[in-house]
Amino acid sequence: MSNPRVGFISLGCPKALVDSEQILTRLRGEGYQIAPNYQDSDLVIVNTCGFIDAAVEESLDSIGEALAENGRVIVTGCLGARQDEILARHPQVLKITGAHATDEVMDAVHEHLPPAHNPFIDLLPPQGVKLTPPHYAYLKISEGCNHRCTFCIIPSMRGDLVSRPIAEVLHEAETLAASGVKELLVVSQDTSAYGLDLRYQTGIWRGREWKSQFHDLAEALGELGIWVRMHYVYPYPHVDAVLPLMAAGKVLPYLDIPFQHASSRILKLMKRPAAAENNLERIQAWRKICPDLTIRSTFIVGFPGETEAEFQELLDFLTAAQLDRVGCFAYSPVRGAAANALPDPVPEAIQQERLARFMEHQAGISAARLQRRVGRIETVIIDEVAEEGAVARSQGDAPEIDGQVFIDGVTHLQVGQLVQVEIEEADEYDLWGRLV
Ligand code: SF4
């Protein structure tokens, strides 16, 4: 008898991707095959996203497509918190779970598609099943969030912060490194809050006691000798302690900090973490400790009540902060978010006009920041080798979201290899270099 086959659709952010990897790992561990299309699947799991309305629609459409093409569908992920909405559109789904619910998903799979006896389950790779290329992997350190940003419904979908104990995280990181992963991307909803719910409880790894806390996590991961990149960090004072580790080359000199705005009134309306901190001073202090620090951020323009003066304050912040990589969205209401009730929505035409001004303003800054690197020698990681040459990333570029470094005409390198290049050219996003 052949093994039961499960199709899998994974939507959403890196946190959802890690959930998908955990479910796929369990499925493979129990002998299920992962089928590449609906026709070859005995049932289909759809891991949904519910962050903004467009993502909700995409998730509902994906469930509909899986039902039409296959007929047997289990739904998991963020949108699972809105059962009624899913059932109203797709009453025939077999089961709905929330995010980060591997056990519940597996129970539903067992019920609707019992596993075959498989003596070869040990063939599962020890690092589990990864959806990322073999040379980098996401490391999820916690789930949920204690903040209540008014534009966000993640806490209502994923609950309060639940951190993984430090020893568990470090063992997973070590296994990933041993399996050939060259870069770890640390993700969560709020990486700087790591361990708060555990009261920073300690754990033993490599014979030493470590706290479940941001600094210890960074220091311990730094011992693995691979690239470690920190995402979703908030500018709290305790983050300062990680900067010397970056300056010493233990973890990448890179911080992904979603500032979202610069006006203190708007930040308060958004109920942002660290809203009362002086972000500009903090950035300047960090750059003194670690001059090569790359800061990536995202912003929202046209938040309810944002005045022209407050928007201008944001542009002035960009000029002063000289951030390296910046994404920006025009505010759009998310069903269930508290911000929907705020007065004075900004008309869409003004939102779009501000978005365009923001992007143009930042493009000049990003381009100038990259231009400063021309002539430098930098270590880059190879992501892809094609006929025209190699495509790499610098320490300042996270996969998928930042820029790339093109090394034209070089085809003998391996994916995941670290090489040195002299940067010869830059535009707004990408760099071009020559192998040294
Ligand atoms: S920090 Fe704010 S935006 Fe981020 S997950 Fe928590 S509530 Fe949402």
UniProtKB/TrEMBL annotation:
**What species is given as this protein's source?**
Methylomonas paludis
Q: Name one Pfam family in it.
A: UPF0004
Name listed for the protein in its UniProt record: Ribosomal protein uS12 methylthiotransferase RimO
Q: Where is the TRAM domain?
A: 371-436
- EC number, as in UniProt: 2.8.4.4
Which sites bind [4Fe-4S] cluster 1?
C13, C49, C78
Q: What does this chain do?
A: Catalyzes the methylthiolation of an aspartic acid residue of ribosomal protein uS12.
Q: Which segments constitute the MTTase N-terminal domain?
A: 4-114
Q: Which SMART domains match?
A: Elp3
**Segments forming domain Radical SAM core:** 131-368
